TrEMBL record:
Domain of life: Bacteria
InterPro entries found in the cross-reference section: D-isomer_DH_NAD-bd (IPR006140), NAD(P)-bd_dom_sf (IPR036291)
Protein name listed in UniProt: NAD(P)-dependent oxidoreductase
Residues in D-isomer specific 2-hydroxyacid dehydrogenase NAD-binding domain copies: 103-273
UniProt keyword list: NAD, Oxidoreductase
Length: 298
């Protein structure tokens, strides 16, 4: 059996090597170089424009990441073919590391030390800020948000989380629904965006909502850029209402060369790399899914 692979960003050769070691009986092939009618499953990420509707044997498409909002909009698939996303593929651990780095950055005041260094200034007067006095709020308590919230709670931070429906997590103060959002925001020293991009979450972090954070709060945005109004963020950083931001995701990616965020002294940028799909754990997850959808396999 051949499993089709199509991505503009992932290199097929890397995936084939790991795939062969785990599943020599099925081949992973370039989906654009085999007859489209033979494809039974398709692994896809950041696709080029391609019409898959002639793939009449297709039983399943798997997006090689956690966010498949764009794939849902862009892919032309035969009707009724399910589009699944990867649940973890190593991403939860990577996201915990990334957010912990960002939280430490602000808690241990590396932003202030970096500015002092620019001025050759020996800055000793900053008080030590305890992790147990640092309030961190996770917007979104799904697979990744929950992993990060529980991880930070174990490190001793005061962690709370906000989601659509009620949740209960050990060591995490959970709130939900739009009616609790303003109170949730007002309680955070560091806000972490872990929301997916949907019609409801687009622009959710507007100027008005960001202003509900306490003066001097910091933002870590690591899920999807469209949740955040970037212009509003810049204005609030300029006015000192917000202290700084660590941003991994943007409304437009790659971030345009002329974008003012690049040079903003209170912004730290990473190129959508907080939790990359890791090939080996991703293939393990895919191999656990495929038999449920493909006939004649077990
Ligand atoms: N930057 C990167 O490298 C990277 C890597 C992986 C993933 N991501 C992004 O991270 C996002 C989150 O991943 P995940 O696996 O945690 O997603 P998930 O399991 O789908 O969880 C989404 C969470 O957001 C909440 N939510 C969704 N819509 C909401 C709304 N309108 N109001 C309030 N809460 C809402 C959900 O609440 P309920 O539980 O109540 O439904 C849930 O808690 C992905 O969608 C992806 O875009 C980024």
């Amino acid at each position: 059996m051949q499993i089709g692979f199509h991505s503009q960003t992932f290199y097929l050769g890397d995936w084939q090597q790991a795939w062969q070691a785990r599943c020599p009986s099925w081949s992973l092939v370039n989906a654009q170089q085999v007859p489209i009618q033979t494809l039974e499953a398709l692994l896809i990420w950041r696709p080029s424009q391609w019409d898959w509707r002639a793939a009449k044997q297709l039983k399943l498409v798997i997006g090689l990441g956690a966010g498949i909002h764009n794939l849902q909009q862009d892919l032309l698939l035969p009707p009724g073919v399910p589009l699944l996303r990867l649940q973890d593929a190593g991403m939860a651990r990577a996201m915990c590391e990334y957010v912990h780095y960002g939280v430490l950055h602000f808690q241990r005041q590396f932003d202030r030390f970096a500015r002092a260094q620019q001025q050759n200034r020996w800055l000793t007067e900053l008080p030590y800020q305890y992790s147990q006095h640092t309030r961190v709020g996770l917007l979104g308590l799904g697979h990744l948000g929950t992993a990060v919230a529980e991880y930070l709670a174990k490190q001793g931070y005061q962690v709370s989380g906000w989601s659509r429906s009620p949740r209960q997590l050990a060591g995490v103060h959970c709130l939900h629904g739009l009616e609790q959002l303003e109170y949730f925001l007002s309680q955070q020293d560091i806000l972490v965006n872990m929301l997916p991009h949907t019609a409801q979450t687009e622009g959710l972090l507007s100027r008005q909502r960001l202003q509900q954070l306490p003066r001097g709060a910091a933002l870590i945005s690591a899920s999807r850029g469209a949740v955040l109004e970037q212009q509003a963020l810049i204005g609030l950083l300029d006015s000192g209402q917000l202290r700084g931001a660590l941003l991994d995701v943007f409304t437009q990616e790659p971030l345009a060369e002329a974008d003012p965020l690049w040079r903003h002294p209170r912004v730290w940028i990473t190129p959508h790399h907080s939790a990359p799909t890791l090939i080996e754990p991703a293939i393990d997850e895919i191999l656990a899914i495929l038999p449920r959808y493909l006939s004649g396999t077990s």
